[in-house]
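Weekly structure sync, notes
Attendees: PL, DS, HV (note-taker this week)

Item 1: DUF4125 family protein
DS walked through the input record. Source organism listed as Tractidigestivibacter scatoligenes. Sequence as pasted into the shared doc:
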Amino acid sequence: MAYEKAERDEIIGNIVLAEWELFQAVQNVGGRADCQDMPNTFSAMRRAQFDAWPDEALDSYADDLADTIQAGRNPVAEKYAYMMASTHPEEFEALRDSVPEIPAEKRALVDQIVKIELDWADQLAAAYPHFTGRGRPIRSSEDTPEVTSIETYSRGELSTYSERTLRALLDHYRSLVEKGVNLQERVANEEVRAYGYPSLAAADEAIAKGTMSGQGLDPEFEVSFGCCGCCD
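Item 1 (cont.): predicted structure, written out as C-alpha cells:
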C-alpha cells in the first residue's frame, strides 16, 4: 500500500535529518565546507530528490542508513571518498582501504542508473541551458580537484546504497523512461520552487535576464542549486 503524504514526509524528514548529522562529521580535504553550515539549503535540495523517489526506494534507503550507522560507518563520508577516485585520485589511494569495495553486481546496477541519469542531464541542459550552466559539468571527464561532475557525484552516492535500493531505483527509472519522464527535471523544478520560482522555466529565464535574486536559503549564502550539491 502506498504511503499517505504525511507518512512520506515523515520518512523523508527522518532521512534528511540523519544525512545532515552524518554530513556534519565529514572531514573535508580543505577544511569545513560552506555547505556544512547551510542546513536549509541541504534540506531543500535533499527533499527535492527524495520527493521524486518511490516508496520502496525510500524504505530501502532508510534501512541502508540505519544499518550503516549501526555498523559505525558514515555513508555520507564514504560517498565523498568514492568521488575522490576521480577528483583526487592520489588522495583516494590513501583512503581506499577505509571504504567498502564495490562488488561487481552493485557496480553494474550503478552503471545502469548513471547512464539514465546522464541522458536526463543532457536533456535538461538542452532545455534549460542557463539553469544548468550554473551547476555541475555533466561527465566525469570534466572533473577537476575543485569541480565534481554530475556523473562522479552520482556514482559516489549510488555506491553507498544497498543493491536492494539500487534495484528499486533502477526499476523506477526504467518506468519513467518508458513514460518519457525526466526525473532530473522533476527534481530541479522542486529545487527552484524552494527559492520562490513557479517553475524551472521561470528560473531559467530569470538567470538568462540576470534578474535572479542572489539570496540563498541560509543567511550569508547565495543561491545554490543541486545540493548537496552546494559544496562538492
